[in-house]
Design brief:
The protein has helices at residues 31-36, 39-57, 64-89, 97-114, 119-144, 148-171, 185-192, 205-223, 225-235, 237-242, 247-273, 284-294, 307-325, 332-356; strands spanning 195-198, 201-204. With 358 residues, it is mainly α. α4 runs antiparallel to α5 and α12 (284-294) runs parallel beside α14 (332-356).
């Protein structure tokens, strides 16, 4: 018998067909949890619940004209909520958005009327002013390193004072003059404040613009390099800069997008009512931010979608008009708003933990 023996190779039994080897790190979560981790799913369910509630509690909601009014109210909030949401995903927010809407409308109205010019001149100048306000906010933010809360709070106070003081100085009143008989008014109204009929119901053009902007914002976030930059700077701007993301450009351009939204909504208000009250707009910035938060955007940045704020704005319009159609005291709107906001924050917190849980 030999003193040395050759070891036989170990025989391994192959896993049974269909069996999967996991080490605990690749376990797939249930479909329900993966869906709930999407930022827009929670607010969609909330919007459905609010709609069903008022559909039952307020019979007037079931009429086509009532739903058209609800969608109109939602669109005027939703158009601004979209750029505000993108800015929040980028890690910032803008407290001057509400008064910036009025600044845009005042600029277009007074420039056109006082100088007796075609209203399109005022519209274009108002766009330049709105973009400049956004660029100023972004530039101040990146150059000083101050929080966006302080920068835009300062801009909010400046614009609020300028709106009132300049309007009184030029017109001698707190409101601008009627521009409905000026050249170019009808063409501008057709773009910013017209209506069309669907099934015998008058629908405002802002509803179409709202949906178009939502689709465009969704495409930008999910299909473009710029969308990746937004998520990157919102998640961690230092890490984003380290991998080549143009943080300064992204931040400033996001504030300019808010300026564009303020211009568009301002033009809608001007050509809907032919005149502008200079003291309006205060408090609207909180509505826009709340619609974005309810829509799934985190205040910490780096998380959210463009679809979520659409449903968030719809919930605002539904509650605002639903209370009226139900015959309740409209003062309850603020209470509903607070409940929705707190509920959304708690849901977003749970969603964030669910999304990061292995």
């Amino acid at each position: 018998m030999s003193m040395t023996q050759q070891a036989e190779p170990a025989v391994s039994t192959p896993p049974a067909p269909g069996a999967k080897q996991t080490d605990g790190r690749t376990v797939q979560r249930p479909l329900v949890l993966r869906l709930l981790a999407r930022p827009e799913v929670g607010v969609f369910l909330g919007a459905v619940a609010v709609f069903v509630f008022f559909f039952v509690a307020a019979p007037a909601v079931r009429q086509g004209s009532s739903m058209a009014t609800i969608f109109y109210q939602s669109s005027t909030i939703g158009i601004m909520a979209l750029p505000v949401a993108l800015l929040m995903i980028g890690g910032e927010f803008d407290l001057s958005a509400g008064v910036a809407v009025i600044t845009s409308a005042l600029t277009a109205s007074m420039l056109s009327y006082q100088l007796t010019m075609n209203v399109w001149v005022g519209v274009i100048v108002a766009l330049v002013v709105s973009l400049a306000i956004g660029a100023f906010n972004g530039w101040m933010l990146v150059k000083t390193g101050l929080p966006s809360f302080l920068v835009t709070l300062g801009t909010f106070l400046i614009l609020q004072g300028v709106n009132l003081a300049v309007t009184k100085l030029i017109t001698g009143n707190v409101a601008t003059d009627d521009i409905s008989d000026m050249d170019g008014f009808d063409q501008a109204k057709a773009i910013f404040a017209s209506s069309f009929t669907v099934g015998g119901v008058q629908v405002k053009i802002t509803v179409i613009w709202w949906l178009v902007f939502a689709a465009l914002a969704t495409w930008v976030l999910l299909r473009t390099k710029y969308g990746n930059w937004i998520f990157a700077v919102g998640g961690n701007k230092d890490s984003a800069r380290a991998v080549g993301v143009p943080v300064t450009f992204t931040k400033i351009s996001l504030f300019m997008l808010v300026g564009f939204g303020a211009w568009f909504v301002g033009m809608h208000q001007l050509f809907s009512f032919n005149t502008v009250q200079s003291g309006e707009g205060v408090g609207q910035e909180l509505i826009y931010i709340a619609a974005a938060v309810i829509g799934g955007c985190l205040l910490t940045g780096g998380y959210g979608s463009a679809i979520g704020p659409v449903f968030g704005a719809f919930m605002f319009g539904m509650v605002n008009q639903g209370i009226v159609y139900a015959g309740w005291n409209p003062d309850w709107f603020k209470a509903f708003l607070g409940v929705m906001l707190l509920g959304a924050v708690l849901i977003n917190l749970w969603v964030q933990r669910t999304a990061t849980r292995r």
